[in-house]
UniProtKB/TrEMBL annotation:
Signal peptide as annotated in the record: none
Putative restriction endonuclease domain span: 11-195
Organism: Desertifilum tharense IPPAS B-1220
Name of the molecule in the record: Putative restriction endonuclease domain-containing protein
Gene3D superfamilies documented for this protein: tt1808, chain A
Amino acid sequence: MTYTPPQTLSFEQFIAQYGENTRYELIDGELRDREPTGPHEAVAGSIAGRIYVEIFRSNLNWIIPKNCLIKPLSTQATALRPDVIVLNKAELSKEPLWQTEPVVCNGKTIQLVAEVVSSNWQDDYARKVEEYAFLNIPEYWIVDFRGLGGLQFIGNPKQPTLTVYQLVNGIYQQQQYRLGELISSQLFPELQLRLDDLILA
């Protein structure tokens, strides 16, 4: 039996073939299936809705696009597709690809990213933490509503967990929240949100 390595794609090939297919993202040239399910999408929609209410209430010049890719300028063949992304409208004019594709490259444009954990949880807890910190994204939420992540990430016993990463001097500091606990966000200090609020009964 011989091993056949997966076909690698360039960023341009990925955009041409999968740019509008929200199921996929590209990491180091490798096509990744985000494996969205109904509950996954419902949780992502709940996050976006709760955050949008805070944006509107606080009169912030931010948006939550329906579909958006992040292409870190430091990588050639990576296009991350977060479940929820909050963008600063004032920075969009500086984005080189935005006028032709829903793609952002500059970390200054991004205020917050949220990922809802699927079976490929390793990407959310490892690779994306590094990428988003390198881009200086102020907050990164990992919403592990089924408790799928490794024990080193969510503890033992495994249970539903929401982890908020907040950037401090270029390094993410993390705080974990379990069911029933009020989540704290520096971007949205008046947010009244618990993990329970995001999960459909």
